[in-house]
Amino acid sequence: MTHEILIAGFGGQGILSLGMTLTYAGMIEGKEVSWMPSYGPEMRGGTANCIVIISDNKVSSPILTRFDMVVAMNQPSLEKFESSVKPGGYLLYDSTKIVTPPARADVTTLPVPAGDEAIALGNPRVANMVVLGAILDILEVVPVASVLKALKQVLPERYHAMLPLNEEALRRGTKFSRTPCEAGDSPM
What we know:
Elements: E1 2-10, H1 15-28, E2 32-39, E3 47-55, E4 67-72, H2 75-81, E5 85-94, E6 108-112, H3 114-120, H4 127-139, H5 144-154, H6 163-173
Parallel strand pairs: 1-4, 4-5, 5-6
Antiparallel strand pairs: 1-3, 2-3
Helix pairs in contact: 1-5, 3-4, 4-6, 5-6
């Protein structure tokens, strides 16, 4: 099985960390992986996205134009990458940051209020982990236990005190994958 995922948003939202964590978890599981980041010159507030491929087979190329899943953490990313989801794929988005939801009828759209959940947990920086929880539940690409091991490798040691919070954010994210919207339906 091969999973091809594009994750996009603003710099500072943890887009690249989310992708790297998922990739490391794939390595822990003995999968073939690829992580290809792309970001603007700005430190925060610029654009950021990454392509993650996790497969049972060799990855032939990290460069893709169509994905099994696109994750959009802001409106500009949704507008730019909505058309990149393969028909029958998934379009997951942070419904707290998206004003105009996606309208494609040939994909499953999944609104995840990641920003609101992260604030409820007391730290807006874990919104990316809420989204990762939803990704894991939808695609079942790697187990949560492997993601938690990967987080210890990806997060600098000074942030290891946040590992329990990240785990709670992951677990909260899984509940949102069970409520897909049909194209044109309001996520709220």
